Amino acid sequence: MHARGFLSRRSKAGAAGAIAFALTVSLAPMGGFPALAEAPRAEAREKASAEVFDEAARLVRQNFYDRNLKGRDWDALTTSHRQHYLAAKTPKERSAAINALLAELDASHMIHAMADDPAYYQLADIFRYGLRRTLSKHFPNGISYPGIGVFTRDTDGKTFVAGVLAGLAGDKAGLRVGDEIVSVDGAPFEPVVSFRDKVGSHVKIAIRRERNGPLTNVVAHPQRIEPGKAFRSAMRDSARIIEANGKRLAYIHVWSYAGEDFQNILMEELASGKLKDADALIWDLRDGWGGAQPRYLDIFNTRGPDMTFTERDGKTSFASFKWRKPVALIANGGTRSGKEVLTYGFKKYGLGEVIGTTTAGALLAGRGHLLSDGSFLMVAVNDVAVDGERLEGVGVTPTIEVPFDIPYAAGRDPQLEKAVQVLSEDTRG
């Protein structure tokens, strides 16, 4: 997972690539373009090479939430960026040309992703039900990609670990937030390509933990990452108890909220899992994908009842559960979309402290498209207001501001440390 396709792909006005709590799907044609046999050969090649770009521009025109395209001269913009697309030498450059066109609309939820980008697989998985008729063509063995389960961020030409999915290969290898990734098996780091054909084997990752410090090699065993499954397992594995000041603090990191499963995991861990006997909760919504529904905040509405079901074998499950103890929410610039709705409501209705930095300001509803070459396009199709307020391009400010400088953090997390301090000193309950 990589910042270029997952964490910090941004338009001019806000973060792009985020998933809204409203998800819809559309399929672009997989073929059926006009024949080019009568055109001169060079012109035919140019038209053929521009088909994907033209598809993307057309789908934006037809589906973007503002039918006036924010007053932009879309024809002129398309013509200009089309030239950059045609001049591109590689698939990555062509995708960059499409994303540059999308960025002209200053909106989140506008992204083009290809197979060298983890976002391609993550978005395909999130939209898989609507795309299931065509996904088998591109993912005959299911949606997965080779990786180690870390988020990275590029800063000053260097790549740093910005997050580690608990229980996955990067975590097992001992990678920490703040590590500079210098190379993988002696070659520059690429979030997918570096691990292609190496699943089941091992790679040597050269890292630097201190600014201008020595290089250290860690050995990781790349795995096939199935996005939804990986996010669910990492969420469960992140759940732990932090002992502080005589209190037991529950911690859990929700990397994705694109589906009811993630809220069910939260409820299960708090009601009957590893976190059930905690004195307070740290709810980490930093980075990853949105998709959350406003009703997920009901778990903190103490005025409702709990309800459990018990099977004949004594197994119990919770239909409704309320957390009646203190809670703090951690947010940052990667907290986006549906997660921003939760952060907004959590803050507005006084459910606890919001600790960290201002959220992404990426709150539109997106629709996914598979283009004719199998690449993925997401277009913002609905504007969104929360309690009448528009968060797009604005975000939600924390109640306690705590900056976090990722490079060479050596695993230290000042935002989590502050949450621990706040809750461990809380005298309620």
Describe it for me?
With 429 residues, the chain is an alpha/beta fold. It has two domains: 1-144 and 226-429, 2-enoyl-CoA Hydratase, Chain A, domain 1 (Alpha-Beta Complex), CATH 3.90.226.10; 145-225, Pdz3 Domain (Roll), CATH 2.30.42. Helices cover 29% and strands 22% of the residues. The strands form five sheets. It has a six-stranded mixed sheet with strand order 10-11-12-15-16-19. It has a five-stranded antiparallel sheet with strand order 4-5-6-7-8. The radius of gyration is 22 Å and the shape is globular. The model is unreliable at 1-42 (pLDDT under 50).
| Total domains | 2
Largest sheet: spatial strand order: 10-11-12-15-16-19
CATH class categorisation of the largest domain: Alpha Beta
Specify Rg, calculated over alpha carbons: 22 Å
N to C succession of SSEs: HEHHHEHHEEEHEEEEHEEHEEEEHEEEEH
Brief overview, please?
The chain is α/β, with parallel strands linked by helices and 429 residues long.
Compile the SSE list and pairings.
Elements: H1 3-7, E1 23-27, H2 41-63, H3 74-87, H4 91-103, E2 111-113, H5 118-126, H6 128-138, E3 145-147, E4 150-155, E5 158-164, H7 169-173, E6 180-184, E7 203-208, E8 215-220, E9 223-225, H8 227-238, E10 240-244, E11 247-253, H9 260-271, E12 280-284, E13 307-310, E14 316-320, E15 327-331, H10 338-348, E16 354-356, E17 364-370, E18 376-383, E19 400-401, H11 414-424
Parallel strand pairs: 1-17, 11-12, 12-15, 15-16, 16-19
Antiparallel strand pairs: 2-18, 3-9, 4-5, 5-6, 6-7, 7-8, 10-11, 13-14, 17-18
Helix pairs in contact: 2-3, 2-4, 3-4, 5-6
